[in-house]
Amino acid sequence: MPELVAGLMAGALILYALLGGADYGGGVWDLLATGPRAREQRRLIADAIAPVWEANHVWLILVLVVLFTAFPPAFAAIGTALHIPLTLMLIGVVLRGTAFTFRHYDDQHDQVQRRWGLVFSIASIITPILLGVAVGAVVSGNIRSPEAGGSFVLPWLAPFPFAVGLLALALFAFLAAVFLTVEAHERELANDFRLRAIWAGVAVFLTAGLALLLARRGAPMIWEHLLTGRWAVPLQVATALAAIGAFAALWIRRFRLARVLAAAQVSLILAGWATAQFPWLVVPEHTIRSAAAPDSVLQPLLVALGLGALVLAPSIYYLMRVFKGRGQRSTVNGRP
Amino acid sequence: MPDLLAARSQMAVSLIFHIVFAAIGIAMPLLMVIAEWRWQRTGDEGYLTLAKRWGRGTAILFAVGAVSGTVLSFELGLLWPRFMGYAGAIIGMPFSLEGFAFFTEAVFLGVYLYGWGKVSPRAHLLSGVAVAVSGMLSGIFVVIANAWMNTPAGFTLVNGVPTDIRPFAAMANPHAFPQTLHMTLAAYAATGFAVAGIHALFLRRDPNNGFHRKACGIALAVGAVTAVLQPLSGDIMAKAVARNQPVKLAAFEGHFETRRGAPLHIGGWPDEGAGVTRWALEVPRGLSLLAFNDPDAEVRGLNDFPRENWPPVAIVHLAFQLMVACGTVMALVGLWSVWRRWRYRSGWPSSRRFLLAVAVAAPLGFIAIEAGWIVTEVGRQPWIIYGIMRTREAVTPMPGLIVPFLTFTVLYLLLGGMTAWLIWRQVIASPSGTYHA
Ligand code: HDD
Ligand code: HEM
Ligand code: HEM
Predict the structure, then answer these.
(1) Fewer CB near the terminus (10 Å): N or C of chain A?
(2) Is the CB of B96 inside a 6 Å radius of any atom of ligand 2?
């Protein structure tokens, strides 16, 4: 049963990366908006994010809540050892969300708007990096309890976690660019994001390579599992196929197909990481089993998650159909 | 500043900030939905303008509520890892349910705010109802978790380790009902009065403005009814505290000596050193009557408990007095509104004196909410889980906690200022003319 809960948690994290991640990626492209259509690019990004970012953000909260309900000691260990990067990430979360909303609702003076936009996009870059740093530190195998002489700095202030941070940033930017090709209704705008998607795809490839390279010393256990685990080869082949497919689809402008393949690629990367980490939750002190709450907690939790999903799935489907469905034109005047 | 104090202060700042937006997030959707429903019923465009205007305010405040809530969820682990390691499994259930309530709230708020004209009017109104209901549920679920900290239940302690955990029994702890009732009413009362008070100020300047009249009417209807009920729910709450947390009750009241027929202290300053409460107005037998429904009941005083288990008495006493004072004024203004409404029908807001009273009462609900939470939380000290785990045992070993404390304090001060300014410009000001929907 603990494995089932951990699997659901990984699933929720993947959904956060796909949905919430793309919202962060939008912030990256907001900062990098250039060329004759910079304004249109920014508007497209804002319209794509506005109705959905709060719902997408809740996936992170769900992951956190399931973590502390089902695996309390792991939550305590992470909260203790990663106090600094997580606190910095929270500041990013606060600034990203509020700056975005303030920009949206404030008067349209360019001066003020640009200032909010800058805060929004910089926070959108820093937050995913820190999220990746935290994940990298969790798998690095360097987190020890304070009783065992654990440090508050060493587990995360290292090359490998930062490589994971860059990878997270590249993944989110890639997802956002691919999704935006579908959302754009003007051909030139779609082209802008097609090009950006291709570049971001290259960045994903490079940062993933870097992380893998550094994993050898920075996270030896993961490195080994990634190469030799039972699921390692099939997952990596699948990831590679999805990546190639996504590139090809972008190339021939089949944007809807590219969206599916890019999502598959990112999910597979995360799934590969999750299987490589199995059975550890926080390497090397907490495994899924050693950290798990008793079944009398997990059972009702699973029931609650099931019932919650029954309410949630149709609601989210409805949200996406209203705002992301076929033939949905981006709103013209922006503010409601 | 010692790390424990810094951690407590950071938690306090984060919650004091979050609760404002949370209370608004619970109540504002209801006001919004009432306005939209009135529009659909009467076809009066003024109600539509109101619903849109309030929706815009809710969008801004909701975003701040969502990010500050995220900060809190992390802070449980960042500041109190040992508490979460101990209690996470027991109180995770209400937090998980809350997670789903957040989802439905955020999803339907998205539909509500950006779906004007994209979904049918009926679906739009129903989305608003979904936001209002799930907002209320999110509040209820977190407060249940907090109630558990006051009256832990649903597990058996074996050698200091909680075993035989029953998550639903933990949710059904003795303070769950009184606290959720009291807090839910508080959210509607505080938000209703705050909104009504702002529009009452405009009405004093411009008595015939239909927009402000409609706004004030809806907000006051919600605020008045709940404010009148609030002292009753507070009484239920106080009786539960008297049963389950006698030290806390004694601290509320600045009551030092155990005695039968204990008096109620109104105001005054509890002197912990001397063990007396000075300068208070005493209502003979009042405390025994209020706490136990019996003027001769014995009420245990602080001196019955070891000194190390006392909460900071003066803070708790003063905060409690402040909350009750605010609650009394609000209930009186609430009664006055109900009476005027019944007596004058639609002419009810015409009296300038009445509008002044509503405006003066505007901030009281939020002051009472903050004071009430200080009573609850400071009154629970030195325990994080009452009678089971001390706050100092729960804090993170991380050194230098003053840095994040100061950082979040500055961040929240800036954010609070920006939010107030934006709400002023985008929602409250420019009632006519420049409005563009
Ligand atoms: C479910 C959890 C929960 C909820 C709903 C609240 N609190 Fe709390 N609060 C805590 C969980 C908590 C905590 C993490 O457990 C703390 C840290 C130390 C302690 O005893 O409790 C705490 C401490 C704490 C303190 C410091 C008390 C002291 O150490 O003297 C204050 C002033 C508040 N809180 C204020 C609030 C406010 C204004 C709330 C309204 C939103 C609130 N709390 C709700
Ligand atoms: C330790 C205490 C608390 C934690 C961990 C917490 C957590 C959160 C989180 C994570 C969110 C964001 C949800 C989203 O993204 O939409 C949130 C929002 C919210 N919280 Fe809290 N919260 C706490 C205290 C409270 C209290 C005391 C109340 C009310 C009684 C409350 C009521 C709400 C409501 C209604 C929202 C919806 C957002 C809004 O309208 O602003 N919360 N909270
Ligand atoms: C005048 C009558 C009132 C009485 C007798 C009263 C009583 C109480 C009591 C005894 C507590 C302590 C609960 C504990 O220790 O756990 C409390 C807490 C609280 N009060 Fe009041 N109260 C009154 C009015 C109000 C009003 C008008 C508001 C806000 C609009 C309010 C908001 C709160 C809040 C937010 C809490 C903390 C949350 C909780 O414990 O549920 N109260 N109140």
Answers:
(1) N
(2) no
